[in-house]
């Protein structure tokens, strides 16, 4: 059995025992054939937290086998929706009990403020699991009239089987719940690959999974490099479905691997370069608050970040001055600090990526309204950076940055705003602010995005579907639509009266 380590939270003195092995069949075990480890780092201090086992492709095979055995014996069609619901609600209770410790571990590994991790990420994750627990005993098919005198047809929504789930580092617990909850509700079993950057809370949640009473093999957690574990899941012949959240580039590789192997079902929540439009009739104070939230929440590390802001020319100067004031008011620092609303970006690689875009914006002639200067000292901090005078051809306008970097442009007419907003290969989110109800309806209809916010931004609900268009992905998460990604519809044709003559 792989040995856990004890991690001390410097800010609180809390000691948290963290598993370091691979979680397979409800046990933490070492790799079967590898001594490789994954080093986790605190992005606020750049210090190593601990190392965990890195799964090999043979370990993925072992985890898939465990998930298949559970699906065929103790889960899948072998357990009632009532029992699935009971276990899921128990898991949610345990997460609620341990919310503070989970938040502190999340902050240590990811960098986000502990208050945000606890009250938003974990709070929403608990609600997500409870929401889908409510669905577990309500997954129903249809009875379809064929011929009332001789035949009837009905459908069954059956669990699709073993699911490979690959989650990112920006919302480690939240993305875990978005993937795990609908899969469990539908009766699927899971092989979960957390990001190699932030694996600690996924391993800790696996302990709670055992405590809740789930059978062995229902959930298996295999930290690994994406090129190893993610690739193995995407191409595995005994995985029935793969769900991925991350970059469009990696999403393409997963879809190709799924097609080349067993044509497994795929759902992809990918990148974005989301437009956010401010019309002259908007409440400018509120619009500035939402625009700031849209790009600065989670230090801009958000697939739906409103990173392209379009402001009507009649209010442009007034609004950008107000927005800069909002950005300067946001406190960025160590996630354990007082009144901190944003932490460091997650890793050195991400820090260097974000700064390369900031330097690109400067080189291409964009004007810096706020930020754009590096801090001294330790920590992967990027202060809110706002560019104005941007052109559509600039890299900071075309490409996803995944940091607190905003490109602001002006427009004159509604038609121009829509054209600018839709001028992207992505289609995950979009937002608009206006007090003209007719305009809100026209523009929300015209925007090419899976989610459109009107007079708000970046707010999601567990009962409302979420997903992308164009190169932002396929499939939907959350809401009843999320269950469809984990079920297979079987049609049963029942003849009770027609006699077949032969030869016909």
Automatic annotation (TrEMBL):
Any idea which residues are catalytic in this one? 269
Annotated source species:
Gloeophyllum trabeum (strain ATCC 11539 / FP-39264 / Madison 617)
Query: Could you tell me which residue ranges the Aldehyde dehydrogenase domain spans?
Result: 34-492
Q: Which family does it belong to?
A: Belongs to the aldehyde dehydrogenase family.
Q: Which domain of life is it from?
A: Eukaryota
Q: Which UniProt keywords apply?
A: Oxidoreductase
* Record SUPFAM superfamilies: ALDH-like
GO MF assignments: aldehyde dehydrogenase [NAD(P)+] activity
**Protein name, please?**
NAD-aldehyde dehydrogenase
